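Readers of this paper often ask what the protein records in our data store actually look like. An entry from our holdings is shown next, in its original layout:
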Amino acid sequence: MSFDPDLMPLVPALRHWLIVIGGLSAAAILVSLLSMLVIHGGKCLQLFADEVQGFLTDLVSISIRRVFALAKLTFMEAYRRKALLVFVVFALLFMFAGWFMGNDGEEITKPTVKLYISFVLRAITWLTLPLMFILSSFGIPEEIRLRSLHTVVTKPARRLEIVLGRVLGFTALGSLVLVVMSVVGWIWIVRQIPADARSMLICRVPVRGNLSFKDRNGQDVEKGINVGDINEFRSYIEGATKARAIWTFSGIGENSLDSEGNLHIENQFMAFRSYKGDMNRQLLFDYQFRNPEKNITYTTQAWPIVEKRGVTKAIPRKLEVPSEGKTYDLIKDFVTSDGNLIVEVSCIDREQYLGMARIDLFIRLPDQNFAVGFFKAVFGIEMIMILVVLMGVCASTFLKGPIATALTFILFILSGEDTHKFMDQLIGGKSIKDGWQGGGFFESIYRIVTHMNPTTDLPANYAFTIMQGVDWVLTFFLWTCKQVIPHLKYFNMQEYVANGFDVPFDQSLGPCLLITLAYVLPCVLLGFFALRIRELESK
């Protein structure tokens, strides 16, 4: 299966940002209020009001100089604890990696290049994150145990400045480790690949479109033909018929052309032969540009299908039709008034089939340097590291080191793809409006005990209405938890670089940065309240 990125548009990321800010801030306030209720009883409201006033006072009186001083102190303490010894492990890993990943004099292929890139980015991730787990979770508890934090709190430093200083200090240390490792890793990749094969280190900038189909009679259909492929990733169109695969690209204009005025279209189609025929002859296909507003079409020449690798075709801006004595302008004549370009693909060979998915055809803009895409993927690792630091420092303000590390690790595991899929199944879909088969928690228990079919409606009375209401509240709580837990699938950008693509800002980098910033205020807020009400003398 080809690389099919699951993008996160900016608008859903903004909605997620608002949910995280509201949900986690409310949770931080609720946890602090319940803690005061357990410790101080009836005086909790007055004490909570005093703590809120103290937070606002600290916020107004915050000193950037003191925050940076505490960050520097945190950095130096982590350095004295031999945190930078991780570079030794990193160096040893790369010294011997070439033995197991070398090509032994064989020709470098694209899978080998992909292996090199994936190895470097994964090595950076799994050497940096464990270091941040331990440092951020053990920082404040160790200072309380050694009573070194008492020296800080007796100074003018405020609790809010302590939390911010710890976050900035650990982030600076992790960023230093990340920068050094990424630069060394990039140099290692370039040096491992021979000079004559470095053209494979590419960073393509694709413009992807929406895909639709027409059947053999020219009627619009949702999908093409299924030729028996079990994953149904690609649909197939029949050759020498009216069957078409239609891509609609948005935002096409002068800037989509190269310096010579050509439009580059890359494809990776698959062929399915219903009969063997001449196996040395490849199947043929063509492109057809169509503008429904002007009712004009242009069909290119026939090209052979090259399977299992991308093939780029340069389409000139001036499209000549000798039989009609006309010359079309690709941009002026075939780009519609709303900036769309319609490209239809057809298979020429009779009773043969051409398979494609949405990602199998895209307009290729001028390539970026490989280093651009590589360091964008490193930026994604940086965002994950900041989330780990925020969660670790927040947990360390009210838990001891080992427990804070375990809690941070559990939250990190819950941020994975499998957990989010499982939570989607529990709530019955991506939103609570989708419903669920068999009802919620209590309704499911009732149906199991009474052997009631999930499709059978419950009796209409107040008891079952209350039960469904309680299930809705529990499901809404689970849905909220799913929304506030970061989805790290969108932060993993190594697949873009490994497959030779640029990392889009508006659908990857921007949303990840926005989501990371959303966790700053709730984590700092909870850490502040925890330090305010925590007994620093306890070990």
Q: What stands out?
A: The first helix runs from residue 10 to 40.
